[in-house]
């Protein structure tokens, strides 16, 4: 059965890194990709393999939107079409002669997305909530995790690890019981936490000084996106979107977008610096634990033991397993449950 993972949109590059004269080599789901901008400045993503003798196109050069292969100089335009074969026709530009392996790509919200199938399951990539709302400021981080898509997304919406891995920075161990409603429908999992107040670690004094219950909702959108919302007392709010791009079976790139509204603090230059620094610390801690986890999995295999506190993990991995087996997530039964666990 063919995996359905290739029918989704994945970030292949940030818009800002793909200047007109750049050629990028990327990899998604084990597919080698070359990325460049065509004559109309629109991005083009192709298999990183020349049609002629299989040279790596990403080692070629782009000029005025045309990509030249480094081996015999075949030239491709921004639609992925072959437009010149120097040894056959001389250097003059010829008619479009062939269609190469170009993939669908869309530039949106500062990212270039690609779909490796000609039948994407959605017409557009996920739109990040509040991304275009001027009230919010933004911080973006990009990191490589040596672990699978499933283990990365599980981590990004896992609460119990935070008191151990991120102790102090993000959450303190309090031995408090947390309750949540978990709902799964059509590849979307929504988790609404009901009684959270002790989760802001060393910045609690600023973010939640009276230790009131705050709004906390986690979302997972199949196959690779998590979106976490914290709404603090007053109007302050921050949202973290993590897009995990599976590079191979054991490596992922994670694009983290933090949108925040901290009132007047939004305009203080220190705020952005601090959020970026704290977020990177948290991500470094997750990378450490996940990289180690993968070394153990490689040695002993991935066999997990699970309790009822792992319900969310169970739901996400069921969805990813279904996709790997060629099943669309809406084929799985809808679920709605309450969970409690201790943090
Ligand atoms: S291999 Fe690309 S032009 Fe020959
Ligand atoms: Fe974490």
TrEMBL record:
Enzyme class: oxidoreductase
Gene3D superfamilies noted in UniProt: Naphthalene 1,2-dioxygenase Alpha Subunit, Chain A, domain 1, Rieske [2Fe-2S] iron-sulphur domain
InterPro entries, per the entry: Cholesterol_7-desaturase, Rieske_2Fe-2S, Rieske_2Fe-2S_sf, VanA_C_cat
UniProt GO BP: methylation
GO molecular function: 2 iron, 2 sulfur cluster binding; dioxygenase activity; metal ion binding; methyltransferase activity
Residue stretches making up the Rieske domain: 9-97
Swiss-Prot/TrEMBL keywords: 2Fe-2S, Dioxygenase, Iron, Iron-sulfur, Metal-binding, Methyltransferase, Oxidoreductase, Transferase
PROSITE patterns assigned to the protein according to its UniProt record, in alphabetical order: RIESKE
A Pfam match: VanA_C
Record EC number: 1.14.13.178
Matching PANTHER family: 3-KETOSTEROID-9-ALPHA-MONOOXYGENASE, OXYGENASE COMPONENT, IRON-SULFUR DOMAIN CONTAINING PROTEIN
Designated name of the protein: Aromatic ring-hydroxylating dioxygenase subunit alpha
Species whose genome carries this gene: Candidatus Berkiella aquae
